Each structure stands twice: as structure tokens, then as C-alpha cells.
Amino acid sequence: MSSEVKVKTTCPYCGVGCGVEATLADGEIIAVSGDKDHPANFGRLCVKGSALHETSGLQGRLLHPFVEGQQTDWETALETVAEKLSNIRDTYGADAIAFYLSGQLLTEDYYVANKLAKGFIGTGNVDTNSRLCMSSAVAGYKRAFGADAVPCSYEDLEHSDLIVLTGSNAAWTHPVLYRRIVEAKRNNPKLKIVVIDPRRTASCDIADLHLPIAPGADNFVFQGLLAYLVSEEAIDREYIDLYTEGFDQAIVEAASLGVELVAQKAGLTIDALTMFFRWYADTEKTVTFYSQGINQSATGTDKCNAIINCHLATGRIGKVGAGPFSITGQPNAMGGREVGGLANMLAAHMDYNEDNTATVSRFWNTQNISSKPGLKAVDLFDAVAEGKIKAIWIMGTNPAVSMPNADRVKAALEKCDTVIVSDCVALTDTTATANILLPACDWGEKSGTVTNSERRISRQRRILLAPGQARPDWWIMSQVAQKMGFTQAFDYSSSRDIFVEHAALSGFENDGSRLFNIERLSELSEKEYDTLTPIQWPVTQHSPQGTERLFCDNRFYTASGKAQFTLSTPRLPLQLKSSTFPFILNTGRIRDQWHTMTRTARASRLLEHIGQPFVTIHPNTAKANDLVDGDLVRVSTHLGSIDVILMTDTGMAPTALFAPIHWSSQYASNARVDALVQPRTDPVSGQPEFKCTPAAIEKIETAQWAIILSRNPIDCSSFTFWNRTPAASADCHVYEVALAENVNWQQFITDKRLSENGPAQAYEHFCDATHSDERFICYSDHQLELVIYSHSNKQSLPSPTWLQSLVEMSRVGESYWSMLAGDAYLQRAGGRRICSCFKVGRDSIVEAIEGGAESVEHLGQQLLCGTNCGSCIPELSALLTLHKKIEAA
Ligand code: SF4
Fold first, then answer.
1. What is the DSSP string of 580-647?
2. Which of 714, 662, 173, 107 is nearest to 428 (CA)?
3. How far apart, in Å, are the Cα atoms of 169 and each of 196, 444, 673?
4. Please, what is the angle between helix 300-313 and helix 247-255, to 10°?
5. H helix count then E strand count, the chain
6. 3-state DSSP call for residue 481?
7. Sign (positive or negative) of CA dihedral 578, 581, 583, 584
8. Distance between CA 185 and CA 168 in Å, rounded?
9. Mean of the per-residue pLDDT values for the chain?
10. CA-based nearest residue to 846, from 827, 859, 836, 857
11. What local confidence, expressed as pLDDT, does residue 607 receive?
12. Which tens digits make up the pLDDT trace of 540-564?
């Protein structure tokens, strides 16, 4: 019997940065659980973290380097990259080269990329997908505190008496933090939760007050709050006088924003708004918890500062249970910021100026350092489109899907001279544009550090052997650097070598002038680095155990040492609706998926909660537009259109649409929502406005729907709509498709049987008298090859989960004919999956409620749902509430 080994590491998805304990046997991860000792999560994991071991297989991996479509060896690939970059720099100058990085990279990878590009090639064009996520939060902190510094710790959520969740659906986007808030509320009956969001989301489940704000009106609310605090004399005059500057100017603008005006601008009732203001004024321990709903805006930085202004005015900063708390989307957005991995930063939290470039040049011992900021993401891809950037190296991200105006970005990459992509996945919308593809290590194969939203640095440990030719990103870049002639500066033999250099740079010529300082970690041995336990920066001689909370001494990193109030004029988004585009399209994440699904879609259970690209709309608006749940619809903006499934949601405002960011061309026919988003950016941070694009919606007529299980990928080009889910139990794919005209499935199968991908030799067939209900089971050598269920009514099709169960049924010898029969057909595996951990469907939950289950706890006792990661608890509560309403009616 093989022995099991447990290794502590960190989840690679969101900015909560949960500690994970992976159990290994025979070189494979057989289970993951939350690390009980990790201060971010104390043993909890959400459903994405719980499924990490299901996503670590070889399915879809990039295993070899490719140059111009030809597989090659590392030596050739590295030589080619080095030669191309050198030639372009010599011919067009360093600014013709760009790096586009990812908040998924480890800090060590980020450090080497930044050093190579800015320090040695000499280009400032190093930006990252973190620009899309939290750059407004960074700019807001820098304007207020003189440093990109999140003052709070997660523990503050437990010590707070008022948590204002604004621009955050934490229940879905940061589930483990949300669970901490739920528990804090349970333990502290005084704790009030206010959710400010245009949508009534799952996070409202615990809200004492939900403010369904008009899109983009946050600045009105927080400036109005400042005015209210002044008028109610609820400010901390002593704190303002001693530790801040700019208060008097800031309130000039805010003073005109009375409650009535703010309520009108924000589309709120005066009573609800006043209640929020009153609670804020009365509650010393207040945390404002904000995320992409604030940041992803053309006025995102002003919104962040409006939030910070209220905390400065009340002195609620650097205190237990209080502070403006930006929660990052990505696992290592903060680590990227630490090394300077944004185009407007140089390194180690140093901005571009003469002194800093001299300091960093001395440390890196280079003469080539870039002397000016580079282009931020939107401008950077514009420069690619205009041919000014001749080579771009993209690492671990998928801008052809995730950038605003994504079609333009994709076209720009397709015509760029040299596109180098390092990724662990072979086929993405972005790798499809690459001239050079470099196989990078995946989560379990990498060693390094990540920093979460509370400044906590944690180790991500290598627990698996890298497959094929996959290598760590830092290794790939160091090899290219050496081939470009920068031999000594990139002579690293491990990620620890890089980390200690990064730590040393943070302290180099620092003298307390820069808050980011982890110099104390610069002497870690290999063993100490390997066993490093989670620690919050700064880590200095004065704070060797790290720093839980910042600004407790009321000293800030501005020229005067005082925090700065920021003056801004609130305005609503410029992108007004019109008769052509009468809706406002909001975009965001869903509970069980991450980014463009390159990893999470490998675990089929993560597609059981929501498996199709969709758009949500209020049911009354749907009715008024002759739309019903499940319709295929086209959502259009002036940039293009996507085809998705309609879902109604009573939490939506009447003229709002919401669509997820996740689906790429690999998983759906036409659902890249960011292709519809205008690239309007915040003038300070450069962060795009993803939340507010005028849009239209219309029904696409369908004649037929089908669900297909296939052992091999199928050609979907003749379908009006399709989406694909990799199946759990075998190397199969499930397709859900819609057709504008009836298809001849027998012909389809004949074609498929003749094709090299379809070796099916025989099939069973069922068809009703009207041909509206047709089913096929195709097989060869006692193995299912292809299954098709087709119906004129989508609701009459079996669920993808049930379809997948046919693979198991065939293994236990169930006859193919019986699979077509009515009994099996009617099984739906409990309805739409709500609890992904224990595979509990909606129908089973409703049945339990009708049978007497009265609470989430009762449901957990009966069905286990909600008893593991807890991500489904808001939906369980919503079903309980719905049932109570139905009963009352
Ligand atoms: Fe990973 Fe979930 Fe924790 Fe985020 S909340 S770090 S996705 S386990």
C-alpha cells in the first residue's frame, strides 16, 4: 500500500489566498482540504478550492514548446525568443517590446519578468491582467496614503460592528471571506451588514440593509455620506487635524450632496440611505469591503478615495475592526504589485523617478533600466493593434477573452509580428494567436510565494512533477535573459534565490521611506524558505513577525507624512442608454468558475451549478420583451453581440442585464462577453469600465435543442448555438446545442461515423411520431461513442449530469436500448445542481423543504448540502425563503 503525504500549499484562484492541505499518494493529489492553521481560512475552502485535485490532470495541457506551429525543443524555443527580442530591441527600440503578465503568476515569476523587461531590455511596457481587477484600488490607496497599502486584516471583519459590502458579491467571488462574515455575524449580534449593489445578489442573504444603487452612483453615496458625517458632527476632528490634509477642500464638493440629492442620483429611497448614513455615523468599528464593482469603473479611483475619505474623516483606520478594505480578485495581484509588475511602477513599490531608477539600477547592476512608465493594458493592446509594439510576451492569461473590446485585442494579436505565450494550457483564444508557445508549470508543479488581500505572503509548494517539457515561468525567462547576454543577473537556481533578492530590494536604500519592506526575509535559507509560514508584510527588524494592521501610528507615506483627502466631483457613467441600446450590461463572475475557465472547466462538477453562458434579466422585463427562462438570446452592444441563455432573476433592476466573464471560444459558440465591453478607462488608474455598457437583447428563434455526449470533440459549426462541458467520468464532452432549423440527426451520425473522429459502428434510435423527440445511442466495441437527445422543447431534455451518468450505466452493462427508455430519461439527478460538493440538485432540496426541512441546518442534516464549503448556503436560504412565500400565498 502506498503511503500518503500531506503538503501545505495555497489555493491559486481568488485573492482570499486560502491555505490548502494536499494529500498525495503515488505522486498524485488524491484529496485537498483547507489548511486549519492558515490564518486566511482556518480550514475552510470554497468549491473551487475543494476541486483543485480534480483540475490537476493532463487534459488539455501544453507539454512542449512550439515555434510557428512546429513542436520543438527548449533550446530552439529559447534561442528563438532571445533572438527575436534582441532583434526587435535593436531595430525598433526597447519600447517595441511588451510583457503582459497575470495575477496568477507567483511573485518570483513576476519579479523576473519585471527585472528582465524594465531592468535589462529597458521597456516599461509591463502590464498585467491585475490592471483589470484592482488598479483603481491601488491608485486610491496611493493618493490617500502615499503607498499601495491595504490597512486591514481579515480579522478586522470579526471585530467589526458594521461591514459595508460595496461593489462585491463576496458570497460568490470571495466565498471563504463571506463565510467568515457570516460567522462573525452569528457570534456578534451587534454586527450589521450593508450591501450596496445594483443587483440583489447572494451576498444580500445576510444583509441588514441592501441599497440597490443605480449603476456607477457609488461616489454620490460616499460623498453624500461624508457630507452627512460633517453635518451630524460625527467626524473625528482631532484625527483630521493631526494626521490628514485636504479635508476642507474635500467637503466643499461633498457639502452640496444632501441626502435628497444623493438618493435621487443613486436611485435609492431617502429612508434607506439615511438608515445607512446613521449606522455609519454611529458605528466606530466600520469596515468598508470593496471590490470590482467599485474598481471596474471609469471613475473607480475617485470612488475608492470617496470611501477612504469617510474613514479618514472618522479616524477609522489603523484600528481594530475598522478600515477601507480592498479585496483583490486574483490570488497574487498583490505580489505582482510588490515587485512593480504594473506599467506605471518601477519595482518594489517604487514609482518612476530619477532617484528610484538610480536606486534600482544600482541594485540590479544594470545600465539599461527603463526611465519612464510604460503603457497600461488598454493602451498597450492599442499599441499592438497600431503596430508600435512588435513583440508581446503573454504569461498565464487570456487577453483575447478578458480584455474589453476583446475582438480588437484578438485581431491585434493575430497581426502582431511576434506573440510569445507561456501557458500551462494548450488551446485558449490567446494561445491560438501565438507564434511561439512555451509550456509553463501548472499550480501543483510550481514553487514560490503569493500575497493575498490582507498582505499575507504564503508559500505555494511544488507537489507534483512537471509533465512533458513544462517548466516554471521564472526558469523560462531566466534562460531567455541569459541567452540575451544578461548572464549574471539571471543566474538563479531556485525560486528561493529570486525571493531573497526581491526581499533585499524591498529594503535596499529604504530607510523607512517605503512601506513595502520584507528585508527581514532576505536571508532565508532554502530550508527556511521552504518552511516559511504565512506572514503579513512589512516584515522588518521592527516587525519580524509581520504586521497585522497598518497606520496604527497615524504616519503615512506622503511627502508630509499625513493622509490625504481627495477632492472629486461625482458623476454617473457617461455611457447612457439609448433607444437602440436600452439596457445596461453588467459583467462579473459566477460562484464555481474562475477567469476564462482554462482550469476550472476541467472539473465537470464545477459546471454543474451553472453550465451554460447566460444573461440575467428581471422576470417582468423578460415578460415585457416576450422572453422566458431558457430562451436563446442575443445580447448586443455597439461593439458586437453574444448568444447566451436567458435566466430571470428578481434581484435585477428593470433595465439591467448581467452576464458572466468566463466563457471563451473553447467552451461556447459566441459568448465572450468582454468583446461587448467598451474600453473606457479610469484616467488615473487605467482600469476599464466593465460594469456599465449600453446593450440590447433579442430572442433568437430556435427549432430544436439537443444535448450530446461524445467521446471525441465534434464539429459544432453548423449549430446556431453550442456550449461544451468536459465530462467527469471519461474523456468525453457534453454539448448543449440549439438549432434554428431542424437537423437530420441520422445524417449527422452517418457523417460522424464516416469521419476519423467517429468510430461508432452501431446505434439505437428512438423517435416520437412528430419527430420532435429524438434519441440516439451510438456505440462500438461495447463502448459508448455518441449520445444525442434532441427535442423541440429545451425543458424536455435530460440534464448534462444525467447524460454523463450514461457512461457509468454502459460500464455496468445496462442495455443501450434501455438508456433510451422513458424511465431513465426522466431522471434528472435531482434537478439543477445547487451543492457541487455533495451533488445535491434543486429538486431534491425543494422536496426536502416540502417534507418539513425549515432551515439550512435541516437541509444539511438531510442532504449534506451546504456542510462542506458553504458556497451554496445563500441559494439554500433563497429556496427556503421562496418556499415560505409560496406557502404564505
Ligand atoms: Fe480558493 Fe475559494 Fe479560498 Fe478563493 S475562497 S482562495 S477560490 S478556496
1. SS-EEEEEE--TT--TTSTTGGGSGGGGSSS-S-EEEE-HHHHHHTT--TT-EEEEEETTEEEEEEEE
2. 662
3. 10, 28, 19
4. 110
5. 30, 36
6. helix
7. negative
8. 18
9. 93
10. 859
11. 85
12. 999 999 999 999 999 999 999 999 9
Q: Which of 10, 13, 178, 599 to mutate to test the pocket of ligand 1 (most atoms within 8 A of CB)?
A: 13
Judge whether 703 and 739 are in contact, CB under 8 Å. yes
| Residue 408 CB neighbours (<10 A) | 18
Mean pLDDT confidence for 572-582: 83
Give residue 730's pLDDT.
Answer: 62
Distance 181 CA to ligand 1 centre (A): 15
Of residues 55, 808, 105, the one with CA closest to residue 477: 105
Residue 752 has pLDDT above 70, yes or no: no
**What is the average pLDDT across 30-35?**
96
In this structure, are residues 56 and 441 in contact, taking their beta carbons and an 8 Å threshold? Answer: no
Pocket test for ligand 1, best of 9, 10, 18, 593 (most atoms within 8 A of CB): 18
Q: Which atom of ligand 1 is nearest to the CA of 176?
A: 5
Which residue's alpha carbon is nearest to atom 3 within ligand 1? 18
Question: How does residue 770 score in pLDDT terms, banded at 50, 70 and 90?
Answer: confident
- Evaluate the CA torsion angle 881, 626, 582, 692 in order and state its sign: positive
Flag whether the pTM goes above 0.90.
Answer: yes
Site residues for ligand 1, CB cut-off 6 Å: 11, 13-14, 16-18, 41, 45-46, 48-49, 174-176
Q: What is the 3-state secondary structure (H, E, C) of 86-148?
A: HHHHHHHCHHHEEEEECCCCCHHHHHHHHHHHHHHHCCCCEEEHHHHCCHHHHHHHHHHHCCC
Bridge pairing between strands 28-34 and 19-25: antiparallel
List beta partners, residue 694: 584
**Concatenated DSSP letters of 491-540:** --SSHHHHHHHHHHHHHTT-TTS-S---GGGTT--HHHHHTPPPEESP--
pLDDT at 339: 96
CB atoms within 10 A of CB 465: 10
| pLDDT for residue 831 | 66
869 alpha carbon – ligand 1 mean position (Å) = 10
**104 Cα: distance to centroid of ligand 1 (angstroms):** 13
